[in-house]
Design brief:
Length: about 325
């Protein structure tokens, strides 16, 4: 809940209190909330203005909290994510945490945690909704076309770096990598060349060993080249990535895992891909989830404003995706 919504919630509460404390009534029987310049303003009119301007935002906040506090009650993973995010912020604003909270409109850390929890609940609700729409055939198709066994590899990285006097240009880095490949062709030891030449400080001392990995763990160019190799085969041409030029030696390959072993991972991957590819999905999914849990608007103005809100959110998401 943002600062504006919290402020309006407080105003709504004040209106309720004003209406129940024996205030002066107008001729039509409505309560007087406040007055100025001898003019009385009714609590009903005050509430109508608030509802017109902020009603949808407050309503959504209340409805989502009611639904998701029930659906994801005692969800330790979501709670932990919220706590981790707060701890990160506390470290960032260590010297002024209380002041930062206050300036952001929170009267306590607990309120901030509640907001983070609700946001993570919404994200989980969208993901769960999308997962429910994925068929068994889609899962098996993804498995057949994309699932592979882990492979292991070693590499020698020659960086492109023109920011220092000793750094190499693109042409120089490629030329150095090509010379190392020629040395390998003559029988040079890969581990020895990696220790002496690789710019990957994380693996060079271990002969360039990267261990086992799967699709998505490495940059695309490196991954494609590594999977195309046979075990104990190295690339005959340098492989260029954003890191520089690589010489890759494939050292191992595991069997493709069984479908049932990776089904849950595939389901999560497809769901996340759909959410990333469709900017409007989070909006329409939450709208459907609310309806599935009995969300119904009786107030005609709020109903109209809610439909307008969803429409505007979808439009904004589409425009953002285009830019």
């Amino acid at each position: 809940m943002n600062k504006k919504i919290r402020l309006i919630s407080a105003i709504v509460l004040s209106t309720v209190l004003l209406c129940g404390c024996g205030n002066t009534k107008l001729k039509d029987g409505s309560e007087v909330a406040f007055k100025a310049n001898s003019t009385n303003f009714s609590a009903d009119k005050f509430y109508t203005q608030i509802k017109k301007k902020y009603g949808v935002s407050v309503m959504i906040e209340m409805i989502d909290k009611e639904i998701f506090d029930t659906v994801y009650k005692d969800n330790e993973e979501i709670t932990k994510k919220a706590e981790t995010q707060i701890e990160t912020l506390k470290q960032q604003y260590a010297d002024s945490w209380d002041e930062t909270l206050k300036n952001a409109g929170y009267d306590s850390e607990k309120k901030l945690k509640e907001e983070f929890i609700l946001n993570f609940q919404r994200e989980q609700a969208v993901e769960d909704y999308v997962k429910d729409s994925i068929s068994e055939d889609e899962l098996k198709k993804y498995y057949d076309e994309n699932t592979v066994g882990d492979i292991s590899a070693k590499h020698i990285l020659i960086k492109v770096d023109t920011s220092t006097e000793d750094g190499l240009t693109d042409d120089e880095a490629k030329e150095k990598a090509e010379k190392l490949i020629k040395e390998l062709e003559k029988g040079a030891d890969f581990d020895k060349l990696a220790k002496e030449n690789s710019d990957d400080t994380g693996s060079k001392d271990n002969g360039g060993d990267l261990g086992y990995f799967n699709k998505g763990d490495m940059v695309q160019e490196f991954e494609d080249a590594a999977y195309a190799l046979k075990v104990n085969e190295y690339t005959k041409e340098p492989v260029k990535t954003t890191y520089g030029y690589h010489i890759i030696l494939k050292t191992g390959e595991k069997k493709k895992p069984k479908y049932k072993e990776v089904k849950d991972t595939i389901l999560e991957t497809i769901a996340k891909n759909r959410i990333e590819q469709d900017a409007t999905l989070s909006i329409t999914a939450l709208d459907e989830v609310r309806k599935n849990y009995g969300f119904k608007i009786n107030d005609s103005r709020l109903k109209k404003e809610y439909k307008k809100y969803i429409k505007n959110q979808i439009k904004a998401a589409e425009e953002s995706a285009e830019n």
